[in-house]
Protein: Translation initiation factor IF-2
Organism: Ancrocorticia populi
Amino acid sequence: AALITVLFRMGEMATMNQSLDEDTFKLLGAELGYDVQVMSAEDEDREILEQFDIDLDAEEAAEDDENLVARPPVVTVMGHVDHGKTKLLDAIRHARVLETEHGGITQHIGAYQVHIDYEDTDRAITFIDTPGHEAFTQMRARGADITDVAILVVAADDGVMPQTVEALNHAQSAGVKIVVAVNKIDVEGANPAKVRAQLTEYGLVAEEYGGDTMFVDISAKQRTGIDDLLEAVLYTSDAEVDPKANPDRPARGVAIEAKLDQGRGAVVTALVETGTLRVGDPLVVGAAHGRVRAMFDESGANVEEAGPSRPVQILGMSAVPSAGDSFIVASDDRTARQIADKREAAKRAATLAKRRKRVSLENLNEALKEGTVQTLNLILKGDASGSVEALESSLLEVEVSDEVQLQIIHRGVGAITQNDVNLATVDNAVIIGFNVRPAERVQELADSEGIEMKFYSVIYKAIEDVEDALKGMLKPIY
Ligand code: GDP
C-alpha cells in the first residue's frame, strides 16, 4: 500500500498486483532513495554461480592459448520448410556415423557426430539434429551460442523463400558462418545457378562468383554431394572459425535435449563446449543436478568420457532440464545440488512473476477490473479443419458486451506447437485445443510462460467455459 501511494504521487495509478516496467521501477527506487538495478536472468545466474566461486567469463579469459586444441565444428542445418533439412541430416547420418559394435544404428538424441577423411586426417563434425532456425534462436535466447557453422539448405527447384532469408538473417546476426547446400538438384527444372544469383542479394556470394561463401550442389534424396558438403563445412570452419577448446579441465556445455524416460529417469543430451565430461562427475544442468551415472553416444554405445564438441546422452540427473540450459561440472555433489536449488528458486520466482501478467479464463474478471485486459484473445487448434471452423463460428456467436471483445487471433489444424505458445505469449492469449494435445515440450513452454491451455472434446463445453469467463469478465456497472 505504501508503494502504491508513492506511485500515485508519481502519477502512476498502479494496483496491488500490477507489473511495472523497468523505468518505473527505477523511478520508484530513486523516489525512495534506492538505486535499482534490473537484472537479466543471465546476470542472476552469473550471480548464483559467483556465490560458488564460479566465474565462467573469467575462466574463459584466463584460458591459456597453449592449452587450447582444435575441436570439431558444431553445425546447424537451416532453411525453408520442405527444402530438405531433415532429409539432409538423415543422409549425413547414414553416410557417415561411425559403425560400432551396436550395429551403427543411430538414434535421435538431438545431435550426432560424423567422421570424414579430410586432407589425410580423420576429422569430426558435430551436427545439431533439430533442423530449423527456431531451435537455434531458442538456444541463443537462452544464452547458448553453440553453432560454429550453419548449413543453409535451399531447394534448387524452389529457390530462395521467406524462411531462407529468415534463417540467413538469424545466422548472420549471430555471426555464424554459412555454407549453402543447394539441394534437390536431381529434380527436373532444378536451377542451382538461380539460387546462387538470388543469394548474392543477401550478401552470400559464391566463390565462383568472386565471393567467399561456399555453395555445394547436393541431392539429399539420392545422397550425392554429401562428402563435398562436409568438406566445405570443414574448409569454412578451418578458415573462418577455427574452433578451439581446452579438453583438460572440468567440462562446461549445454543441454540440447532432455526427456523423462520410464526406467532410466532423466535423459539429457549434453554438448560439451570445453573440458572433458566423465562418468562420475558431479553435474548441474540448469536446475537439475546429479552424478553422471552413464553416458552414451548416438549409436547407443557406452562412453566413459566426452571431450569438446562431443554430444552425449547422460543419465543420473535429478530432473529434466530445458533445451539450452547450460551445464557445469561442480567441485562436489553438494555444490551441484546447491546451485541447482538456487536456480530452481530463481526459476520459480520468474515464472510466478510472468504468470501474474497472463490472462486465463479464470482470472479474466480480475484482469478486466484492473484494466490490464479489454479483449479475450484466443488461439484455436483442432484435429480437423471442420471442427476448428465449427468451434470458431460458435465462439463468434457468443454474446459479448461493449466492454469486452473476443478475438480469435489464430486458428489451425494439428497439435499445439511451440509457435502457438509463443504467439499466445506475445498477444496474451488463451489456447483452446479441440481433440488435440500439446507435445511435452510445448506444455513445458506454456507452463514456464504462464500460458493457459484448455482442452476440449465437445464443442459446447468450450463455448460454455468461454461464455462463463466472459460473463465474469463483464465490468461491474456503477
Ligand atoms: P524440411 O522441411 O526442410 O526438413 O524438408 P524434408 O527433409 O522433410 O524434405 C521435404 C521433402 O522434399 C520430402 O518429401 C523429401 O523427400 C524431399 N526431398 C528432400 N531432399 C530432396 C532431394 O534432394 N531430391 C528430391 N527429389 N526430393 C528431396
